Fold:
Amino acid sequence: MARLTKKQKEAHSKIDRSKLYSLEEASALIKEITNVKFDASVDLAVRLGVDPRKANQMVRGVVTLPHGTGKEVKVLALVTPDKEAEAKEAGADFVGLDEYLDKIKGGWTDVDVIITMPSVMGKLGPLGRILGPRGLMPNPKTGTVTMDVAKAVTDVKGGKIDFKVDKTGIVHAAIGKSSFSADKIAGNAKELIDTLVKLKPAAAKGVYMKSIYLSSTMSPSVQLDPKAV
Structure:
């Protein structure tokens, strides 16, 4: 096991492992124990009492974080010419169609989100092997396949994120930056947690929210009290 640095030891010493923290306490503590020289991401990990292998227990959705993600999101709008002006005005970083499809075929994926229209999805099908593993394939369920391109771009730029439970039953999501105030970190985390509660599958039995952890890049994690949240 790698040895902890002096800063890492100091961070660990500030966490009471026997305690389950409130969201407000955890948010303040994460800011205190984050000592990297860059604006670290703050992440939330929620272990759910579901079996993702069963379709009726899959948890997936979108949430708009009230205080944004703190990250500059690069958006590609794959749209027909009549929608290009709309996408550009809404703030899309890249707008077009065939030229960007060709770039993606060549391996270009330097974007965070791709938004497109239902009529274009047929052209994207063959690119699934490139976009799928990177989480870039547009999906109607996440609002990235729509005729209202402007709203989709605005939502993504404003802090909309999508999430999906992984095969171990955990939802991971970046919900802000360490430069955020503790109140903003807590507010974003609560919005995601509230959304997960609303999405509880009817087939899920027993305890739904098994554990919740808050952490930042390279920091130890802080365990929250699910009941308090």
